[in-house]
Write a structure and sequence with these properties.
single chain, 5-stranded mixed β-sheet, 8 helices
């Protein structure tokens, strides 16, 4: 029969193991939305969805761009309305510009605005200071120079970076020669992405999360038909991911098909079809998009080798 002292030592030892396990098993949470609100219905429902998100206690919300439909006018009034809507979020909200807010604003149905002037307006309204939107704000780092909408921040063992990469072929233009805007912005995008991977490696980060609006066309790229506007971006993303020991999560919207998969291919693979093997440490998360509302909770779990796990939440109207 064990003595009281032996029993106490056993209990204390067991408690110590539990405490040690607790110290090693840490989790952090954030939420992902995008391509919303498009309709008057979504404008009414988004505050309720943001309340549902806040009830789950994420550290922040990411909106991956397109806060209006392409046919709605890109007016100052609408931009101010969206700023107020995002600032009402009870948790910090980080917004990434989408094509509907600037590159597509020259359409007649969108008010025939100058896209570059609209992008400057977005910068004034949403990126004037190095912090998130929302009732509570989160400090962020902005890229120095002409692209303050490109951000960097951290959560637990993961580094986050946002890129201004819009749909419609990254604003490359409709001709064989790229637009001047693309030629100026894309090198800054690539530089910010490369710097972020270098920072993640230097800090020994367990993961890197990249947020942008555009779907860069993984399916076409796998077939050797990469869209020219995303060619340099995908090549950089592939090279840097293969050289990174941690996990890479790319979040985007654009094509309105909520999915979680591994579409980035390894061109050095030796399978029957070269370049057909998914890169194991890369995951793509596409947001919900009109006409379906919803959000995805991403859990950073230090116990998982792949670091990220996901909970998909379709929105239920109130």
């Amino acid at each position: 029969m064990n003595s009281p002292a032996t029993t106490m030592r056993s209990l204390l030892g067991g408690l110590g193991l539990l405490l040690a396990a607790g110290l090693h098993a840490e989790t952090w949470r954030f939420a992902v939305i995008g391509d919303t609100p498009y309709s008057s219905y979504e404008e009414r429902q988004l505050p309720a969805m943001l309340d549902d998100i806040a009830a789950e206690n994420p550290q922040f919300v990411v909106h991956a761009g397109d806060f209006k439909s392409s046919s709605k006018p890109c007016s100052d009034a609408l931009f101010s309305d969206r700023r107020a809507l995002f600032d009402a979020s009870r948790v910090p909200l980080i917004y990434v510009p989408g094509d509907n807010e600037w590159t597509d604003c020259d359409r007649q149905s969108a008010g025939h605005f100058d896209p570059l002037e609209r992008l400057q307006k977005l910068r004034q309204l949403f990126f004037a200071a190095p912090r998130s939107l929302g009732q509570q704000t989160l400090a962020v780092e902005q890229q120095a120079g002409a692209y303050p909408e490109q951000l960097r921040w951290r959560l637990g063992p993961v580094l986050f970076v946002s890129l201004n990469v819009p749909g419609s072929n990254n604003n490359f233009g409709h001709r064989k020669t790229p637009s001047p805007e693309y030629l100026a912005r894309n090198p800054a995008v690539i530089e910010w992405l490369e710097q972020s991977f270098a920072t993640a490696r230097r800090e020994n980060a367990a993961g890197l999360v990249i947020v942008m609006q555009a779907n860069p066309g993984f399916k076409h790229a796998a077939a050797g038909l990469t869209h020219v506007g995303y060619r340099k971006l995908l090549a950089t993303l592939r090279r840097e991911t293969l050289a990174f020991r941690g996990q890479v999560l790319l979040i985007h919207g654009d094509t309105h098909w909520q999915r979680i998969d591994q579409p980035l291919r390894d061109p050095t693979s030796t399978t029957d079809k070269p370049g057909n093997r998914p890169i194991a440490n890369f995951t793509r998360l596409e947001t919900f998009g009109y006409p379906l509302m919803g959000w995805v909770k991403v859990i950073i779990d230090s116990e998982l080798p792949q670091i990220f796990r996901f909970e998909v939440h379709p929105h239920r109207a109130r």
